[in-house]
Specification:
Blueprint lengths: L12 H14 L12 H8 L3 H13 L3 E4 L3 E4 L4 H25 L4 H14 L1
Length: about 120
């Protein structure tokens, strides 16, 4: 499992790890029931502390993306697709809210934003 750590990022390392594993689970790159690397082995591969990887795994467990089986390790959980969708919609709403605020501050009309969304949507 490839995880890239940016040491100059303002995002804490445990959160970078958590976010990348979460993305791999949501995209189905990591499948339900799949065993994740041990806390120690992940820490060794990423050259970070075991506390950092432990925190990332614990956060993923709290959010329901992984489960632990004592003495066996961390496994990818069956994800609730509706919960993930709701979480992603919330992120999109926050991004759109920020875009609207920037547009209003700069006197950009609503139709310009809608046109931009249409163009960007079609390019994907």
């Amino acid at each position: 499992m490839e995880i890239i750590i940016n040491n100059s990022s303002e995002i804490p390392i445990y959160e970078q790890i958590k976010n990348q594993i979460k993305t791999k689970i949501i995209s189905n790159e990591l499948k339900a029931g799949e065993l994740l690397p041990s806390i120690r082995s992940l820490a060794k591969n990423l050259r970070c502390s075991v506390i950092t990887t432990k925190n990332a795994y614990e956060e993923l467990q709290k959010e329901g993306y992984v489960k632990t089986i004592p003495s066996k390790g961390f496994y990818v959980s069956e994800i609730n697709k509706e919960l993930v969708k709701e979480e992603q919609l919330n992120k999109i709403q926050n991004l759109i809210d920020n875009a609207i605020n920037v547009a209003k501050i700069n006197d950009i009309e609503k139709q310009n934003l809608l046109d931009m969304i249409d163009i960007l949507w079609e390019d994907k």
